[in-house]
Amino acid sequence: MRKRLTLWIGEPNGTSFDFADHIALLSHTHQQMQVKTTSLAAASEAVGFIMHKGKSKTLR
Fold first, then answer.
1. Which domain of life is it from (predicted)?
2. Max CA distance (Å), the chain
3. What whole-number distance in Å separates Cα of residue 54 and Cα of residue 33?
């Protein structure tokens, strides 16, 4: 059974993620990306998912 996580990251309709291997977060500024990343990490931890920081990448 796949786990599903819905995050509310400053968007009225939220963002829904099906967890597999990859998640892409898009932002216009570094500050927006930091807020999204922090929110994702907190919500993920709350449901038992762990973000592997060593496997995370930032593309500019």
1. Eukaryota
2. 35
3. 17
Could you give the CA distance from residue 20 to residue 27 in angstroms, rounded to a whole number?
21
Per domain, the residue ranges of the chain are 4-50
37: three-class secondary structure by DSSP: helix
CA distances from 7 to 23, 43, 54, 60 (A): 13, 7, 23, 23
Which residue bears the tokens 């967890």? 19
pLDDT in tens, 22-51: 778 888 898 998 998 888 888 888 888 877
Which pTM was predicted?
0.55
